[in-house]
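Dear colleague,

Following up on Tuesday's group meeting, I ran the structure prediction for the four-component complex that the binding team flagged. I've pasted the input sequences exactly as they went in, so you can double-check that nothing got truncated or mislabelled along the way. The structure tokens for the whole assembly follow below. Feel free to forward this to whoever is handling the docking comparison.

Inputs:
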Amino acid sequence: MKIITTGMLKKERHAFIIRQINLHNKVLSSDLGLQLQVSEDTVRRDLNELSESGKIIKVHGGALSKSFHFPYEQKDVYAQDSKKEVARKAIGLVSEGMTVLTGGGTTMLEMARLVPDDLEATFFTISPVVALELSEKKMLTVILIGGTLNKNAQVNMGSKTIADLSEIGVDLCFLGTNGIDLKEGITDSEWEVLQVKKAMIGASARIAIMCIGEKLNSVKKMKVCSLNTIDYLITDLASNDPKLQSYEAHTKVI
Amino acid sequence: MKIITTGMLKKERHAFIIRQINLHNKVLSSDLGLQLQVSEDTVRRDLNELSESGKIIKVHGGALSKSFHFPYEQKDVYAQDSKKEVARKAIGLVSEGMTVLTGGGTTMLEMARLVPDDLEATFFTISPVVALELSEKKMLTVILIGGTLNKNAQVNMGSKTIADLSEIGVDLCFLGTNGIDLKEGITDSEWEVLQVKKAMIGASARIAIMCIGEKLNSVKKMKVCSLNTIDYLITDLASNDPKLQSYEAHTKVI
DNA sequence: CAGGAAATTGCAAATTTCTGCGGTTTTTTT
DNA sequence: AAAAAAACCGCAGAAATTTGCAATTTCCTG
């Protein structure tokens, strides 16, 4: 990635660094030196200041996100990258002026982070976390669908959420899922989640399912909708991946 | 870009600077000196004034937009200790089984943190931040009132929020305020905020106002309600503080 | 409209902050 | 253990800011 910046104020550099860290979970002093067009000493001084005020964690070679958890196992990191890739592809579907509805979860959060700063659009969401992240983007209108906050999923659920969803209409809805299968379509294991997802589907003209490749061909207890209801299937896999071939008959694979 | 200006009054220069900042998110002292045809010393004095009145953020080399902020940065909390004391007193009003409604802001967030882990109660809130904090408490039911997320206040506002508030009824409502005065009662400076606060008051059997002592006897542009509407006034001051005496005729001072 | 107080502005000197560089130390890699 | 990479340290020049002060302008008031 090449980012050219000139004549930044120190505070701006700090903000830039924080953004880079939020985006990639880490930064290298050498990269920042090039991107910010300053010496690595200056970068290190910046990192020191940010570190002393507790915004980042400085390590040899650069810095890490404060919320960065050291990889417990390789798979976690791998999934993280996969989700970022899914998010990156997903945000490509959103264009100027659209009205979008999103659920919660880490993939949605990643997507919220990747919304371009100059995009003017309206985002409905049932996730307070996603809403707060989206509120960083100046040009967005963010509407939080209320309801009973589910402590595990950290999204709003329940009859109020369902009722409110039934009153809106959006262009595109992003949904995550744990169960997706050729025959059973989209499935879920929790009844409450199921109800909300159905309501979200009902509120949207087009539906995009986001899931990492390893979730393909797994079936949960209850059916959300069939594959034909889905307009886009967004995964981290390459579009020519054989695992995706059989899905292409039912939906647009991205 | 070349902008030629001559013979501007200070007020005009200030307006010009604010415009430039709104446009570009930052200004350089040196640029402004040229654009305004005044010495950089004058520019710096202007920036100092604008900074002191909280319109901009002055940094070495120029100034940044007030809305310039780091993603995730916890803004320096002003008078944090006082607010914690207010929060500590406030949470004492909540008892088992109650239904409570709260607004947003740092004081409310402090209160959310202080909710006992074993308290079983229902909290309605218009603040996603407070909601997420409350969701840490296992025994609470947390209901987030939806609406359009206000980027500055980080609370939900707008007609949807008002409508939803009109449909609920709670035992106790916690409200923060910037303006409280014996004669004018509770006042606020933003119309949208005013509407929401009125709706919150309408939804609750009892009203508790939370504010730090220094806010006492200040008046803003628009009236929320009179002091008699208020059931509790919670401040960080000792209950025998002379500043509080005159309020005791209208409301219970804590 | 004259006169004077108060506010404003530019200038220069003193001070502080910022930044890159060379030399040295520490950490990591080979 | 040696080599390489990254950090650290201190310094000096550049840039920005502060401060005091004098000159000027603005704003009242009679």
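The longest strand of chain B covers residues 170-176.

Cheers,
M.
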